[in-house]
């Protein structure tokens, strides 16, 4: 994977690109994530696709405190990265908040997105209490962590815990997150503030939804999503939680590799 940097409107976006002329897949991480968390999925699909992932604004190596954290800015970043890499058509994949960004991008740039794959993410609109509940979890991290092993244990252990721990930054005080919680709140609030049913109904590309059997998606939301997009394929991975791409990368890769 080759690293790249895109700079626009005062924001640096850092990402990775497998290169080549294969059909392109662009992967969007969720809140507090990073492009590297997609590595298990990338390893399973790069023989079939040109794979691109980047640290979204406010996260990872990208600009940590951007002035604009709107939904529109996140969508513009996706378009800017694709344009920078000369990609004119892609499969767009997003997890959690990244799924919300992917959905809005597909609704507004139908010429760019030929297929949409959502991992534990929907139309938003859960309300301010959902934002605060999520932010409280981040505020409860016992950072700095003394070691990656300690961090991995805090994040639940196993491969999923190890991947979360790998995203921490070494500092003289110990291992720290590569984000600021106030930035996360500002970025997440617009997702929960409004349900984007109009954009969802406007989608014209094939849509796949991957749910974790122990994830966060509400059955009633999925049912309405399916009602408005009756050709949507829903894949539920019973043993997975919200981070389906970390818990069961084989299943996520299988969906990507098998188009309808």
UniProtKB/TrEMBL annotation:
Q: Does the keyword Hydrolase apply?
A: yes
Q: Which domain of life is it from?
A: Bacteria
Q: Name one GO molecular function term.
A: hydrolase activity
- Domain AB hydrolase-1: where? 23-247
GO CC terms for this protein? Answer: membrane
InterPro entries given in the database record? AB_hydrolase_1, AB_hydrolase_fold, AB_hydrolase_sf
Q: Which UniProt keywords apply?
A: Hydrolase
Q: What is one Pfam family matched by this protein?
A: Abhydrolase_1
Q: What is this protein called?
A: Pimeloyl-ACP methyl ester carboxylesterase
To which species is this protein native? Micrococcus endophyticus
């Amino acid at each position: 994977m080759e690293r790249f940097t895109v700079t626009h409107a005062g924001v640096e976006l850092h990402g990775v690109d497998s290169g080549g002329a294969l059909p392109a897949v662009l992967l969007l991480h969720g809140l507090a994530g990073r492009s590297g968390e997609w590595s298990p999925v990338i390893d399973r699909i790069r023989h079939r696709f040109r794979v691109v992932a980047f640290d979204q604004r406010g996260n990872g190596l990208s600009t940590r405190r951007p002035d604009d954290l709107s939904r529109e800015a996140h969508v513009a970043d996706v378009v800017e990265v694709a344009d920078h890499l000369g990609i004119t058509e892609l499969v767009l994949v997003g997890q959690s908040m990244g799924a919300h960004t992917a959905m809005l991008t597909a609704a507004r740039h139908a010429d760019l997105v030929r297929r949409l794959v959502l991992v534990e993410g929907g139309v938003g609109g859960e309300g301010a209490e959902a934002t605060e509940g999520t932010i409280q979890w981040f505020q409860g991290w016992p950072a700095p962590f003394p070691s990656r092993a300690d961090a991995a244990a805090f994040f639940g252990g196993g491969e999923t815990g190890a991947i979360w721990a790998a995203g921490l930054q070494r500092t003289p005080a110990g291992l720290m997150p590569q984000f600021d919680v106030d930035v996360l709140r500002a970025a997440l609030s617009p997702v929960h503030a409004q349900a984007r049913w109009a954009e969802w109904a406007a989608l014209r590309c094939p849509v796949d939804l991957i749910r974790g059997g122990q994830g966060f998606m509400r059955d009633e939301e999925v049912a309405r999503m399916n009602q408005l997009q009756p050709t949507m394929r829903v894949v539920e991975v019973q043993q997975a939680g919200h981070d389906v791409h970390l818990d069961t990368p084989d299943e996520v890769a299988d969906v990507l590799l098998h188009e309808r």
